[in-house]
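Our consortium's second objective concerns turning raw sequence data into structural hypotheses that experimental partners can test. To show how far this objective has progressed, the report includes one record in full. It was chosen at random from the queue rather than selected for favorable results. The single chain below, 396 residues long, was entered without modification.
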Amino acid sequence: MLRFLTAGESHGPSLTVIVEGLPSGLPIDIEVIGDELARRRLGFGRGPRMRFERDELRITGGVRHGRTLGSPVAIEIINTEWPKWEQEMSAAPGEPSKKLRSPRPGHADLVGMQKYAFDDARDVLERSSARETAARVAAGALAKALLRTIGVDILSHVVRIGSVEASPDHLPAFSELSKIDESEVRCATKEVEEQMIAEIKAAAKEGDSLGGIAEVVAYGVPVGLGSYVHWDRKLDGLIGQALLSIQAVKGVEIGHGFTQAGQRGSVAHDAIFFDESAGNSGGFGRRSDHAGGLEGGVSSGSPLVARVAMKPLATLNRPVLETVDLDTGDSSVSFKERTDVTAVPALGVVAEAMVALVLANEAVRKFGGDSVEEFTRNCQNFLANTSSTSSSARPK
C-alpha cells in the first residue's frame, strides 16, 4: 500500500513528508514537485508574498539519479522565514515571548488547547495551519507521477467563490489545465472569473473572508479501484475522508450527489452501453456521469468527479469575532495571524493531491508490483482481460 506522513509546524524550520509504497523506477523531477507547490501558492485574494516566493525543496531519501528506489521517499520543504521564528519556535527548552490566550472561533485553537492541555494557542495553530498542505501537495506530486504511468490525469477548477457560481454543465478537459492555472481564481470560465474577483475585492474592502467550492476531475481512472465488499474500502468513502481532512473543508460531493437527492431514479442514473474504445472501463461506457465515476464504492472508468466545499477563512483582517480571554474569562476578540481573503483557488490544488494519493494507493493495492514496469504491466493485463470478458457478452 501507498501511505504518507507529514511532520512540521507552520513557522518551524521545515515541513517533511515521507511517502512509502512507491514502486522502484518511477522518474522523479524535483522541479515538477516545485511547480505543483507553486500552483498551491497562487490565486487572487491571497497574501502578496505568495506571488513571488518559491518553496525550497530537498529530497532526502528514496530517490537516486532521478528514479525511486522502492524505499520510502522523504521530501523536506524549507521554511524561508525560519530565521524570524527560530527563537519563538525553538525545540530547545525555554518559554515563548508571548502566549496566545484568546482562541480564534472557527479554528482548532480552543479544542486543541483543551484536548492536549496547552496554555498557549500557538502550540495548536502551528500544526493545524493549512501550511501543512504544502507537504500533502509534494506527496501528491509523487502520486500523480505514478498514476500517469497508467494513463490517469487529474485537474481541479474553482466552481464557486462566495455567492458567485460557475455553470455546473462544463467539465474541463485535462488539456484545459494550463488555462485554468492562468486564471487568477483558477476558474475555467472568463466571465465568471471576473465576477469572482469582484466578490473577493468587496470582501477584502470590508476585512472579511470568503469560502467556495472546487471541483476535482480524474480522467483515465481504470475500472475496479475500491471495493463494495467492506465499508472502509469503498473508494467514494476513502475520497470523502481524504478531502474532508483538508483544513477548512466542510463538505464533499461525489458526482451530482446532492442534485440526485432531489431527482427521480429514472433520470438520476447513468445508462450503460458497449464502447469498444473505452479501454480503461473494460469496453463499457455511460451515457452520463451523474455518479461521478463511482458505482457501489468502485471506479467505473468514467471520469471521477468530486466537489469540495471550503468555509470562509476564520482569521479575518478586522477583529470582529467574539471569543474569551482565557486569563480573565472576559469577552474579547480573537488574535490575528497572517491571513488571506480566500484560499479556494489553492484548495483545488490540495484536493487534487489528496485524490491522487487515494487513487494511487488503490491502484497499488489492486495491481501491485515492486517496479513501475511490473505495476503498469499488471494494470494493462487486468484491463485487457476485463475487455476480453466484456466482449464475450456482446450481441453476436
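The partners drew two points from this record. The chain has twelve helices and 17 strands. The chain has one domain: 100-391. Both points have been shared with the crystallography group to help prioritize constructs.
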